[in-house]
Amino acid sequence: MQTNEQELRDAQAFLMEHDDFLVVSHVQPDGDAVSSTLAVGWLLSCLGKNYTMVNEGPIPRRMSYLWHADQIIDLSENPLETTYKHVICVDCADFQRVGQTQKYFAEKAHILNIDHHPTNDAYGSVNLIHPKAAATAEILFDLIEFMGIELTEDVATALYTGLLTDTGGFRYSNTTPKVMAAASKLLQYGVDGPGLSELLLEQLTYPQLRVLTKALNKLQLSEDGTIGWVSITPEDMIETGAANEDLEGIVNYPRNIQGVEVGMLFKVINDNAVKVSLRSAGKVDVAAVAQSFGGGGHVRAAGARIEGNLEQIIKQVVERVKVQL
Amino acid sequence: MQTNEQELRDAQAFLMEHDDFLVVSHVQPDGDAVSSTLAVGWLLSCLGKNYTMVNEGPIPRRMSYLWHADQIIDLSENPLETTYKHVICVDCADFQRVGQTQKYFAEKAHILNIDHHPTNDAYGSVNLIHPKAAATAEILFDLIEFMGIELTEDVATALYTGLLTDTGGFRYSNTTPKVMAAASKLLQYGVDGPGLSELLLEQLTYPQLRVLTKALNKLQLSEDGTIGWVSITPEDMIETGAANEDLEGIVNYPRNIQGVEVGMLFKVINDNAVKVSLRSAGKVDVAAVAQSFGGGGHVRAAGARIEGNLEQIIKQVVERVKVQL
């Protein structure tokens, strides 16, 4: 379960031997991406190195409490004037995930690729990939410990944020003994774990709660109670003032009903297109269902964009899920 | 933060020196009460002791997966024929919390009182009280370790259940480094942490989700957005088939809205009585508000039963919260 020691040594050498790094993460950065960017920045500042932290776009406002979060440059607002020979990519499963940041990679730039996705294709000159880690933050926790650098509350808060968000608050199946031991150690550095849980996992905006209510009002169950679904129309979005990101998590409500095997959210995009998100309790491979409609995903979480009107599409998808049950 | 060693020694002596124990917990047992009862039973079985586990009423059906959960006797269904000289009370802050189980305590029974509530008044002959523990399960984790007994998956699952439920899934302010370290160790014994999180923290019944929807449809905010509330009528309960326990957690929805300082749930009991539950984000002492209506509770979670009709009561309570803001 530990991160590979040779890879840790190579990563350390990359950081020690070079200077003037570009630190990047994936497009539309989540908690782990932001936290890992900042943890690498913190590590480089401990080593007295120069570095620039960037992202293709803005980081979520909710994460502005993080140490130096305001120093991650939003390239869509503030393009850089130079390119970098040494780049550190965190939490990017493949090279394309870095998005527009690649414009600032020098030709033949040396890349240190730090990631936990099992599908990572080792695109770096140096790769520190640990597919069993719950988050890239967990790998950075290992790297900092390996390098013998003492944590501070700032970096501990960033690392805890990465663990918390990528494990869904220590609830997903990636919540290993090692994750909990790391969380325990991070709390000892003064991290406000409960405060972070509230901010990142429990807080809702008013439009978010209103659009959730709209969806729940349309909750339907199959006759045998094994399939549950809700839907959202463009009118719901306008009336509640909700943005697309406010729909995150809604699909879990039908999915979490006792007895439901597959929960779904149908989002009407326009008169002739619907986006469906599917979540499985384990029995049904929803990736297969999504693929049959031209979509994709994982066994327990998948999605597809389907042409047609809402009523027809709901009927078709429910029928196809039933076949799998 | 560790449990007091002299108290651990005394508790161990109590278990070693006697036999034929009655193990009881509090009325309307929650996750920690059930888990602690079973963990004590497991410990006694390791010591080769005779014991009887009881509760005043039934244990929640959701917890039937726990080792020997079916051996906790529901005294309302199956009264005992005898009384016990040696009683172990777990998770009971005061003697009255044991409810009807006390009918089976022999006169001058010796009581071992194991609990984590700061208000525990040390009613036992022997007291093992650790107010900084997140759960009674945490104290039992210490006791089992102190006694040098190797954990098994069965008891680890019970202890994890107690930690998980009493910390709200490692989110409340009692989530200490020690809790996370204990959780890490318990997972090493094969506990299905993610499965327990899903079952105990995420799963909803259909009536639960429907009554939540009814409540959310009535969401209101004060003009400045610092107070949010929902309400439930007897008609809502009938229409959705919800029971009182299905209302648990609903008050957190208004409370979790960004900017809200006080969230409230008004439950109409009859034409002339309403029960209000209040939750504070920290600024307002809702216990004081509840007390001013003859209720009580904690600084961040309180409640009261108020005579009057819903509209009047909402107005009064909102006004009284405003004064505190």
Key structural traits:
12 strands, DHH_sf (chains A, B), 325 residues, Diaminopimelate Epimerase, Chain A, domain 1, DDH_dom (chains A, B), 6-stranded mixed beta sheet, alpha/beta, homodimer, inorganic pyrophosphatase (n-terminal core), 2 domains, 11 helices, nucleic acid binding (chains A, B), 37% helix, 6-stranded parallel beta sheet
Please outline the helices and strands.
The structure is a homodimer of 325-residue chains.
Chain A lengths: L4 H13 L3 E4 L6 H16 L4 E5 L17 E2 L9 E7 L14 E11 L10 E4 L6 H11 L6 H14 L10 H11 L5 H10 L3 H11 L3 E2 L5 E6 L1 H7 L11 H4 L6 E9 L2 E8 L5 H7 L3 E2 L3 E7 L2 H15 L1
Parallel strand pairs in A: 1-2, 1-4, 2-3, 4-5, 5-6, 8-9
Antiparallel strand pairs in A: 7-8, 9-10, 10-12, 11-12
Helix pairs in contact in A: 2-3, 2-4, 3-4, 4-5, 4-6
Pfam families (chains A, B): DHH, DHHA1
GO molecular function (chains A, B): nucleic acid binding
InterPro entries (chains A, B): DDH_dom, DHH_sf, DHHA1_dom, Oligoribo/pAp-PDE_c-di-AMP_PDE
